[in-house]
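We include this case.
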Amino acid sequence: MKKIIFYGPTGKKLPPNKLGGGERGCQRTISLYEKLGLQVVVIEKPNLGRGKLHFLYNFLITPFILVITLLKHSNTPIHITGFYENQLFYEYMIFLISRVFRRKVVYELRNGTMAKTFLRHSWIYRKTMQNMLEKSSAVLCQGMEFIAFIQERWEVNTIYYPNYVMNSFIRPYDKQRMH
C-alpha cells in the first residue's frame, strides 16, 4: 500500500471542545488521502491544547519523531500543513529534515493571510518562505489569490485546494453539550 507522512495538527489527543478549523481541515485531508487508498502516517504538530510544558516537550521531540518516521518509511513523501506566521521557521526545519532524506514534500498553505504575512515580514522570513515553496514538489493553496501571488513571483507547482467542511464532520446540535 502506498503511504504518505502527514505533519499537521489533527487534534487526536485534544478534547472535542479544543478542536478548531485547523484540526478539522487536517482530518479532512487525511480522510481524502485514505479515500485515495493511501496509508497515512501522522506526525502530530505540537500545540498548546494540553499546556505549555506538554507543548515544549512535543516541540523538542517532534524532529526526532520525524527522523525515525522517515527512516522507517523509506521513499514516502511528506505533507506539511503550513500555518507559517510565527511557525514558519519550525516548519522549515521539518521541511529541511525531509529534504535531507530526499523526500518529496507537499506544502499546504493554511490560514488565509499568506500574501499579507509574506509582505510584512523580514527578508529572512521571505527568503525562507520562498525557498520552501520553490523546493516543494507541490504547494496546496486554499485561496485562488495565493496561487496568483505565488505564480507572479516564482515557478512553483501550485494546486487549488479549497477549504470546506465535509458532511461527515457535521453533527446535530446537542443541547446537553452546550451546558
Observations:
- The beta strands are 3-8, 39-44, 78-82, 105-109, 138-141, 158-160.
